[in-house]
Amino acid sequence: MFRGRGEPGIPQDVKVMQQLAMHASKRGVEIDVTTNKDRQRIVFAHQDLADRLMEHPLNYRFPSQWTGYIPPAMWQGLPNRSPRREALVAIYEEALSRSAHGQVAA
């Protein structure tokens, strides 16, 4: 259903996700429409954050093993409080914070 193409250069499923996010924000609900590659790029721009992917509880052997995927905040109707999700969210939020403040990786 979503595999066609929308606007030039924008896959249809991304366009649909952007529209859903816009509708949700009008109702006070926040939806993350970033892609796994976007999250990877943002985190990998900071070597120290990429290195945290190899620490407990994530324990990736190499940072590049992380696809950028962050599990959903809700799972089976309950908040997803898994240590892995919390670690990924913390790393990603730190990367976003640094990007917002113009901090560039050394």
Short description:
With 106 residues, the protein is mainly α. The chain is built from 4 helices and 2 strands.
Description of the molecule:
The protein has 106 residues and is mainly alpha-helical. 45% of the residues lie in helices and 4% in strands. The protein contains 4 helices and 2 strands. The chain has a two-stranded antiparallel ribbon with strand order 1-2. The radius of gyration is 16 Å and the shape is globular.
What are the main properties of this structure?
106 residues; mainly alpha; 4 helices; disordered N terminus
Ends distance: 43 Å
Helix content: 40-55%
**Shape from CA axes?**
globular
Give the strand line-up of the largest sheet.
Answer: 1-2
What is the radius of gyration? 16 Å
- N to C succession of SSEs: HHHEEH
Number-wise, the strands total 2
Instruction: Describe the largest sheet.
Output: 2 strands, antiparallel
Mean pLDDT: 81
Strand content: under 5%
**From the helix content, strand content and strand pairing, which structural class follows?**
mainly alpha
Give start-end ranges of low-pLDDT stretches. 1-8
Helix count, DSSP H or I runs of 4 or more residues? 4
